[in-house]
Specification:
Length: about 500
């Protein structure tokens, strides 16, 4: 059913992009109704605009809190054009017909994010605007609704193509988008009031990006979020579901390291990582840990990539390369592989994602993000022998790596270089054996290496195996009722052990 616009109610906070719409509506001889700053804006463009107060016969009151909330306004939006009883009441009470509603709500989330005062935040809870959106969307059979500035362009396109007319299908699409706005707005307000209680979970994402497929080709996949807020893609194919998982793991890992570092990840785990004076040197050390697994993985560094590093990286196939910036000649090299995804990471802050969510059974798990990073001040020497300065540096580096490795996890490090890791094992002993075997495969000498465990040792077997392999220092959370057995073994055999008191399970 086609519907022609004759009267438009306009009440917006953001006016950028509105001028073209008003121009088109004026050309189509649509009557304007508005209030406050929006009315001033419309009249500043030379268009006539009737005040909401003149329509309702009631002034704006309570400091502007009540303007559009009136039966003449909402009656004009909600009345059913094909309902005889509605038409009689509209005529009886002299209620004007409103065919188009354009609203952009007060910026509640922006005010919270900017650190507004409680009073400022409360005043940015839009009442009239969100009610207009709901009313118009409910009656989309007769009314067209644009519920945010993000709908200005689609609305303008519709006006130009339809010459002021819209189909029911088109109005239903705009209504769906409008309810997306109201649900997200209400979610943001609830989360503000519920931030210290966690009494219920409400999430809303305005961005939805369909992916080629999910984890496997037979599964559909969608990313809900604003990827472009965090990254700029310079080159390469469309990012996949599995790429996103690896990118998330990569930025979480590199964000915990302050020195110049480079990591190579595969299936969410680091298969290589090192801290070195330059990116190229870090690349060479990271690749040496496991050049086989590195193929087809992703590379991330926390420093700009120069030509020398790019030339080295370009010798092997990688799905994704991430850095804070790139030299121009480095990009010329990296762009040689047409499908390689090249990303600029805009933020290195690991603390801007306070919560993590995981769906399971018929619900969702939520937890605070693991932003805990141990320093030398957090280490408690548990053995008679303290680690050397070099060992302590390696232990702290290994502890970061094991934090970002799937449990059960063991990580071996030497000279700020990942030597090998055991990942996702059901037995911590198996994780250690896996790591030692991998180190030997790539000809690493474990004498003087250090070991990190994501959880405590319930038995001394791991430190015994580590000692036999040449490992000289161990970092672990501690907390087992049998801690002393592992400590005693270290004391008898000259190993240093430190505990952190912080477990880093990653399931």
């Amino acid at each position: 059913m086609s519907q022609k616009i004759q009267t438009a109610l306009v009440s917006v906070y953001h006016k950028e992009g509105l001028e073209e719409i008003l121009q088109e509506l004026n050309y189509l001889r649509v009557k304007f109704v508005s209030t406050g700053g929006t009315r001033d804006f419309i009249e500043s463009l030379g268009y006539e605009c009737e005040a909401v107060e003149d329509v309702s016969g009631y002034p704006s009151i309570l400091g502007g809190r009540v303007k559009t909330l009136h039966p003449k306004i909402f009656g004009g939006i909600l009345y059913r054009r094909d309902n005889e009883a509605d038409k009689k009441q509209v005529k009886s009470y002299d209620i004007p017909s409103i065919d188009l509603v354009i609203v952009d709500l007060y910026p509640f989330e922006e005010t919270v994010a900017a650190g507004g005062t409680e009073e400022e935040i409360i005043e940015k809870i839009d009442i009239g605007g969100i009610s207009l959106i709901r009313g118009a969307a409910k009656n989309h059979k007769n009314v067209l609704i644009a519920g945010s500035r993000h709908q200005y362009k689609p609305l303008l396109d519709l006006l130009k193509e339809g010459k002021g007319e819209s189909t029911l299908e088109e109005r239903a699409w705009f209504a769906k988008e409008a309810f997306k706005v109201t649900s997200a707005y209400d979610t943001a307000i609830f989360r503000y009031f519920d931030q210290d209680e966690g009494s219920a979970l409400r999430l809303a994402f305005d961005e939805a990006k369909p992916l080629r497929y999910g984890e496997n080709p037979h599964q559909k996949g969608t990313f809900y979020g604003n990827f472009n807020q965090l990254f700029e893609q310079l080159h390469g194919k469309e990012i996949s579901y599995n790429n996103l998982l690896d990118i998330d793991a990569a930025v979480s890992l590199i964000g915990d390291v302050k020195e110049t570092a480079l990591a190579i990840l595969k299936h969410n785990n680091a298969c290589g990582m090192a801290c070195r004076p330059t990116v190229k040197e870090a690349w060479e050390a990271a690749l040496a840990a496991d050049p086989v697994s590195a193929f087809g993985g992703i590379v991330i560094t926390n420093r700009p990539i120069d030509k020398a590093a790019a030339e080295a990286i370009n010798e092997i196939f990688f799905e994704v390369v991430i850095a804070p910036s790139y030299d121009k000649d480095a990009l010329d090299i990296l762009f040689q592989k047409k499908n390689r995804i090249i990303l600029i990471q805009k933020s290195k802050d690991n603390t801007d994602r306070p919560f993590q969510y995981r769906s399971l059974l018929n619900g969702v798990l939520a937890q605070e993000a693991n932003v805990s990073v141990q320093t030398d001040a957090d280490l408690r020497v548990a053995t008679d022998k303290a680690p050397s300065a070099q060992e302590e540096e390696d232990l702290l580096f290994a502890n970061i790596l094991v934090k970002h490795t799937k449990s059960n996890a063991i990580v071996l490090v030497k000279n700020r270089q990942l030597i090998a890791s055991g990942t996702g094992q059901t037995s911590r002993v198996d994780a250690l054996k896996q790591a030692i075997e991998k180190a030997k495969t790539f000809n690493f000498d474990l004498k003087g290496a250090v070991m990190a465990s994501d959880a405590f040792f319930p038995f001394p077997d791991c430190v015994e195996i580590a000692h036999e392999a040449g490992i000289t220092a161990v970092i672990q959370p501690g907390g087992s009722i049998r801690d002393q057995e592992s400590i005693d073994y270290c004391n008898r055999n000259g190993l240093a052990m430190v505990t952190t008191g912080v477990r880093h399970f990653k399931h």
